[in-house]
């Protein structure tokens, strides 16, 4: 397969610009040369005309002057001749200067010391088209030369087979490295989730370590293996084993499920494994409901609540906050704390959130900040207050972050999570594993979702892998009234900040 030269179109544009500039310079230089030669010729013609018409001009013989002037107007460059007497009256106007403009050369006619009249001769301007027509061999030759250069470049600059092969290898290596990094992050994330779901037993550690060793061995033996599928399969296998082992002591009915799961794992049937994980989760939920354990309060969608927690964490992928000097880190955290406290104060003044109060005074550290809101009566919309507070601080942090970056100062984007008290720990893990910058996660029971349903739009987490991820929702926008109310509160908080800074 024949490939074109790199950026051949751009090179054609450069050659076209070069051709246009070359033609323009040719026209300008030719016009300047012709103007100088015509000016010298015009001065000679005027002097010769005065010598021939001196006697007729002295006698004011219009007929003789017309005959003499007509001989000069037969010249191609002469468009008009105007002869005047010593009083400035026109004696003979010859030519069509009103139709063709040009340069005018004037000279006074004298006889001895006496002025007997004047002569004005107008020379025609040369158009740019006439110049190009005069220089057509050069213009066509230059165009052919530029076209030849473009063809030569297209032939010489084409990549060779060796260059194409080297480029293909570089692209493959780049993709392989990207896939390897993605797999490592996914494996580490799955390992952390497995530890959170399990009971931190020795079996869990052994299982995860075995999965990691199996992944490293498979990749080292066959570098061309699909690196996306292998860690995911191992994660699923490890998750199923850990889940079933953790539940065997509590529910004997899961023994059969465990045997079936191990059999399907040996057959490497990933689709059946996912179905069994879902079935095991459902059995576990039913078992917990029947036993009345603490898991009911945590996983039940109908669990009661009268307070919500708002967690705000920094999106710090490279741990920059830990490496920052205390002289810079502490003022930045103090600024974030001040903004959050003012946001809580201003937001709870809204009539819509009447009956909602803040239990604690938030304070930012390296891990973020935590605000707990409580409903003082049954009509207070504490869930809506938590969502509005999280969105309000994300709006404020966006402004502060952009301003700091513009001034070349340190700043970090933020992400927020809103949950009831039973899901505080789960929300912390979700923010770490699922949350993205400038994003808000919501994990509330049905009563809380009902409070915010008329004010915000939610979307589910894509491809959830845990029960909490399946129950979690992502803030996807609010109605105009809520966004306008948040914008007003945001402006009020910023005005307070500016007033304190000026004071």
Describe the structure.
The protein is of the alpha+beta class. 61% of the residues lie in helices and 15% in strands. It has helices spanning 8-59, 62-73, 128-134, 136-156, 161-197, 202-221, 229-248, 254-266, 270-291, 294-299, 320-323, 326-347, 382-406, 424-433, 446-452, 467-471, 480-502; strands spanning 78-85, 90-95, 102-111, 114-124, 307-314, 356-358, 369-375, 414-420, 440-443, 456-460, 473-478. A seven-stranded mixed β-sheet has the order 6-7-5-8-9-11-10, with helices on both faces. Strands 2-1-4-3 form a four-stranded antiparallel β-sheet, covered by helices on one side. α5 (161-197) packs antiparallel against α6 (202-221). The chain is elongated, with a radius of gyration of 44 Å.
From the structure above, extract its key features:
alpha+beta; seven-stranded mixed sheet; 17 helices; 61% helix
Any idea what the shape is?
Answer: elongated
How many β-strand runs?
Answer: 11
Structural classification:
alpha+beta
Which strands sit side by side, in order, in the main sheet?
A: 6-7-5-8-9-11-10
Distance between the termini: 72 Å
- Share of helix, binned: 55-70%
Uncertain residue segments = 199-237, 247-297
Largest sheet: 7 strands, mixed
The radius of gyration computed from the alpha-carbon positions, rounded to a whole number of angstroms, is: 44 Å
Pattern of helices and strands: HHEEEEHHHHHHHHEHHEEHEHEHEHEH
